[in-house]
Amino acid sequence: MTMESDPGTQPHTPAVERGDPTVPERGLPPARPVRDGADVLLKIFHFVAALFLFILAIQLMKRGADAIAPRLQGTFPFDNGVSTLGLGWLGAYLVLSGSPVAAVALTLFAANATTRIQTFTMLTGSRLGASFIVLLVGFIYAVRVHKRRESVGMGVLALSMTALVYIPGMFLAYGILRSGALDGVNWTASAELSGAIDVVWGPIVRLSDQLLPGPLLFPLGLALILGSFKLLDMVLPSLDGEKHATSRGHWMRRPWPMFFLGSLAALLTLSVSVALTILVPLASKGYVKREHAIPYIAGANITTLADTLFAAMILRNPIGVQVVLAEAIAVAVITILMLAFAYRPVSRAVIALDDWIVATTPRLVAFVAILFLMPVALVLSGRLI
Length: 385
Description:
By secondary structure, the protein is an all-alpha fold. Helix content is 74%, strand content 0%.
């Protein structure tokens, strides 16, 4: 026998069916704040460890650069700015990140192995190659989901936008350096911070110097700096990109909010590679359109220099700081002008180029081939200059 409910009254509904957040659903374990607290502590540990390794890596690379500088100074490919531009570009491909290569450029300069212009062009090259990982992830994702236009297209877009901003930015930054506008900037780590670095990291560096030949400290430092960025990757990508895209979908269609979102993402992750790679799955699943990602990429390309500026300050090299600032100022000026006055035509042109490249396999293969041939040509052409 069934019981009819009184039409004038609401049937009793269990709290869980009413969505009462205080009552756990049947069959599911209750919330575990202890586990959440452990996750937070683990992420804090990863962040502290990443910062520790980053500073240690800079110190080891500096000591190693002092040892190898006499052998590198004036030799190929460290003998002119064109070769170092290509070298920084290829180096970013090799380590799938631009920040470690930028740190290498600064440490070599601090050891007098390179000149200011060579450091500047190597830094620029590292930025031009930094977005290659987005294209690589796009290829991998396209194999899985069979959406080449969205996945691979996002990688092509990231590389195209970086070149569109950084190539003219390189000439503007060079003009800023030549003008002497930043000569009065002498930002370095404070004496207190330098003293703390010597107390905490100094014994490790000195012990490493005793156990290993001086030149080996440089690749050791490079390995550690790669490890530090890997630890940072473990801290930040816990953000649910898909959930964020769903709840903030209206932001994805507005240039300036996306610009600031990209700037914040690269500033927090200290890596344009991490900040931009999240765009691949979002684009593949339709959360973000490529044209809406353009200002995000532009913003990330500016603040990605934050860690490079920090490295220059730790090295206590004011000229290195000026080089990084000139690059950041130039890229910021060009980016803001583009978004303010030419966003629509630039967006249409870049997306049209993107669509044309990914439309056929031969064009895509040719694009990738050019990506490798250009920096190689720059490295080799430097011998003729």
